[in-house]
Design brief:
The complex is a heterodimer of chains A (581) and B (254). By secondary structure, chain A is an alpha/beta fold. Helix content of chain A is 22%, strand content 18%. Chain B has 11 helices and no strands. The chains are: A alpha/beta (581), B mainly alpha (254). Chains A and B meet through helix 2, strand 5, helix 10 and strand 18 of A and helix 9, helix 10 and helix 11 of B.
């Protein structure tokens, strides 16, 4: 029997970027917030031994324990889904700060085109441009409407950058100047300019100089130590919830963090109101009920969907007829369209770097190039990054080199600081048969069904990846690489190979309650006091890393929650939209 | 080979070693009973390594990390020889033996990585498609036990010798068969075992020395990887710069 605790204004499930931002905004308004987090609490001082590739990058020291819970995967409905027994394609964060701790800090705004993808594509190219099974949707919010929230988020995090010549307008300049330009970044810049492209330094959450944000939080500049991705930042230079929003929430005295507590159900009254959450203290096994006026679901994409399905909230997506919305439009990132350049007589400081250190062009992103004669839509950024090449993971050899033995050793050592990669980060479109639902066979440590992922690359993705790979090759040739290996064909999606932790969709936002789960404030259409925040809200994914947009949406959701607590009711009037699903 | 692990092998009872060598037991692979039957690892020179013994050595190695947590001496000897072929000594610098990679693998197998502590290990088990990742029921301790025995058995069958005694070319031929998945093992595929062995070898070459491999940071030195450094602010905009490596123990040395 669960112990019933005193009621709070809001309960947050999962204390990462989305949960942290909402906690800080609500507590500043004087609301009492309880943050429930399955993992441990942590602080920057804990990262004393952080520069350990084996512990954190190879053994996933900051990630969810898969023995307790994982996802199952199949490429299509004809296959038997099997559990992801070990990490591969994506990494699931765990503990306070969530994936916001182990991220690289690559921080982008999506393009105006992204938010009105379906209508703008049809307007310019006609209905026939969109394949029948492609279920892309508009977001129910335009770039101009989300811009102030991007601005708010970027000021909080102190994003470093320079204007994207092909991006949407900015109401304010970047809070801090761009990161430093390395020798190889300059090579890319010169090559891209020669090719008539528009290079710019990547916007970064690594912090190019000391910065104090509007909440009064001060952080020091990045040291380019090369340990961002899969690591926590021992300087607090990389923006994460622990060094930005959570101290603000704690300072108010209105925030209570409950680590090692696992939410198993969202409780509701059957009349469209959530009443709180049921959770288990993982240290004692005790079960608690935490009642609340507002429930905010801010775990990662997979558990946002899973917890709604387990709690029987919303309408389950049905891939057969396209009805329902929970689990719909899972999308990812097309990261394999790339080229690798080997330089015989040049060495670069590839051991150094920062997670958000790079230079890119958006000439082949969104609809920045004409698609009339192309058999795919959208595109992706093309980027050269210097994130810090770790020695276990980084053993580059030209194609045709054996994978072990003397020849391998010699080549991998020769090229370890002489290899530059230019890669496409392709947008990922939604398809009718790409979705999340509950697995019929495999269970977590509580005996609840795991989430099942059904996903594969489509013709759209193969064409897009190949196109981007060829553009990458052109740039590398111009950069003077002696040998370039270019991706030729996109193989089927493989869950065992790391690609990106850019999983999106499943609880998507939109203007129409029939085709989306949440409105543009991330408020559930069916349950007005339940907000589901994160990349789960993306109707499809753009050609950029998702965190900047998750941050912007979190600020918008926080505004919506405060508004709802004042006035109640739905924050947006749903409207019927013509969608061919 | 003036390496640390050679020193440790030299530390064994030399008269016993001589007896074994002269008796031809190791070379012939004859199984004998009693204490000698605890079978003998072979070092890279084709000489018998330490047999299981309860007699304390009179000349213990300086590196207290050079001891086994998981492997039998035979498993250690096979791993030591195989990893040296995967990552051999060459003009670039030391190979697996000198980097103590087999000790690294032994220590890793003894812990959570060996038992799959943070992996999803619940059934039911099905073979799965190649895109679904590892779906076996065995953990790495079991995979290495089966795979290393497979290497020894295959060497005996093909060359009538234990793997560590084969020439480098013969060892490469055996490992190629494993890498290509041509050897049938009871449980894992030989290619899966080999890929685990290869991955662990690279980890042992380049992980922080605190884990027992990358001896003397020599793996990092070959690659010009500076290890744990607090800042690259002064070189990030510069041409390639060589920096003397530093390991995580420096964090405890200030």
């Amino acid at each position: 029997m669960a112990t019933k605790l005193p009621k709070t204004d809001a309960v947050i499930i999962g204390v990462g970027w989305a949960g942290g931002i909402i906690a800080s905004e609500l507590t500043k308004e004087g609301l009492k917030v309880v943050g429930i987090e399955r993992g441990n609490d942590r602080k920057t001082e804990d990262y004393f031994m952080m520069h350990d590739e084996l512990r954190y990058a190879q053994r996933h020291g900051m990630m969810q324990d898969l023995s307790k819970e994982t996802v199952t995967f199949r490429n299509n409905e004809g296959m038997r889904a099997l559990p992801m027994r070990r990490y591969g394609s994506f990494l699931l964060g765990d503990g306070v700060g969530g994936a916001g701790v182990h991220w690289n800090g690559q921080n982008f705004r999506f393009l105006p085109y992204d938010f009105e993808l379906r209508s703008q594509t049809i307007e310019k190219y006609g209905e026939d441009k969109i394949p029948e099974d492609m279920t892309i949707q508009d977001w129910g919010i335009t770039y101009d409407e989300i811009e102030p929230y991007y601005d708010q988020y970027e000021k909080m995090a102190g994003i470093s950058g320079e204007d994207n010549p092909l991006g949407g307008h900015r109401s304010n300049p970047f809070p801090t100047p761009p990161m430093k330009k390395t020798v190889n970044m300059k090579l890319f810049e010169e090559a891209a300019k020669k090719l008539g492209l528009n290079p710019y330094v990547q916007p970064s959450a690594n912090l190019s100089e000391d910065y104090t944000n509007p909440d009064g939080i001060s952080r020091v500049a990045c040291q380019y130590c090369g340990f961002c991705e899969r690591f926590g930042c021992e300087y607090g230079a990389k923006a994460d919830p622990i060094v930005t929003v959570l101290p603000v929430a704690k300072e108010t005295g209105n925030f209570e963090l409950r680590p090692h507590s696992y939410v198993t159900r969202i409780l509701h009254d059957g009349n469209g109101k959530a009443t709180g959450v049921l959770y288990t203290d993982l240290n004692t096994g005790e079960e608690f009920e935490q009642p609340a006026d507002i429930v905010v679901l801010t775990s990662y994409v997979f558990n946002n969907v899973r917890l709604l399905l387990l709690s029987e909230l919303g309408k389950v997506y049905n891939p057969a007829d396209g009805t329902g919305s929970i689990g719909k439009n899972y999308a990812y990132q097309i990261r394999k369209g790339k080229a690798t350049g080997f330089f015989d007589d040049k060495k670069f400081n590839m051991f150094a770097g920062a997670g958000g250190l790079g230079i890119l062009v958006d000439d082949y992103n969104g609809d920045n190039f004409d698609h009339t004669d192309l058999d795919f839509i959208h595109g992706g950024m093309i980027i050269h990054q210097q994130t810090g090449q770790r020695p276990i993971a980084n053993n580059p050899v030209p194609s045709g080199t054996p994978s072990w033995g003397q020849e391998f050793k010699d080549a991998s050592i020769k090229y370890t600081n002489s290899t530059l990669t230019v890669s496409g980060e392709g947008a990922s479109m939604a398809f009718k048969d790409h979705y999340l639902d509950l697995d019929p066979t495999y269970k977590d440590s509580f005996g609840d069904p795991l989430i099942r992922l059904t996903y594969d690359f489509k013709e759209q993705d193969r064409k897009l990846a190949k196109y981007l790979a060829q553009r990458c090759e052109e740039i590398l040739v111009e950069m003077g690489a002696d040998h370039v290996d270019t991706m030729q064909e996109l193989e089927p999606y493989d869950v065992a190979v790391y690609q990106s932790t850019h999983n999106t969709g499943g609880v998507i936002m939109g203007a129409d309650p029939e085709t989306s789960a949440v409105n543009s404030y991330l408020q559930m259409w069916d349950v007005e006091n339940l907000f589901v925040v994160g990349a789960s809200a993306f109707p499809q994914n753009a050609g950029y890393n998702p965190t900047g947009t998750v941050g912007a949406l979190s600020y918008r959701a926080a505004e919506g929650i405060v508004e709802y607590l004042k006035n109640g009711g739905g924050l947006v009037q749903g409207k019927k939209e013509k969608q061919s699903v | 080979m003036s390496t640390n692990d050679q020193k440790s092998l030299d530390a064994i009872d030399s008269s016993r070693r001589k007896f074994l060598k002269n008796s031809g037991i190791a070379a012939g692979g004859i199984a004998v009973g009693g204490a000698l039957g605890s079978l003998l690892g072979i070092n890279g020179n084709g000489e018998p390594a330490a047999p299981a013994s309860t007699t304390p050595t009179s000349n213990p190695t300086e590196n207290h990390n050079q001891a086994l947590m998981y492997f039998t001496p035979e498993q250690f000897a096979i791993t030591d020889a195989a990893t040296e072929r995967i990552f051999p000594e060459d003009d670039n610098g030391p190979g697996a033996k000198e980097l103590l990679i087999a000790y690294y693998i032994d220590h890793q197998l003894a812990g959570g990585w060996g038992t799959g502590a943070t992996e999803y290990t619940s059934g039911p088990f099905f073979p799965g498609e190649p895109t679904q990742g590892y779906q076996g029921r065995l953990n790495r301790q079991q995979i290495f036990t089966i795979g290393l025995k497979g290497i020894q058995d295959y060497s005996q069958k093909t060359y009538q010798k234990n793997f560590p005694q084969l020439t480098a070319e013969e060892q490469d031929a055996v490992l190629t068969e494993f890498a290509d998945g041509n050897v049938t093992l009871s449980g894992p595929t030989s290619s899966h075992f080999f890929s685990e062995l290869r991955a662990a070898t690279l980890e042992g070459a380049y992980a922080d020395p605190l884990y027992g491999g990358n001896a003397g940071m020599a793996g990092w030195e070959m690659k010009n990887f500076p290890g744990h450094q607090m800042s690259y602010l002064n070189i990030i905009e510069e041409e390639f710069t060589e920096i003397k490596p530093q390991a995580l123990n420096s964090q405890h040395n200030h």
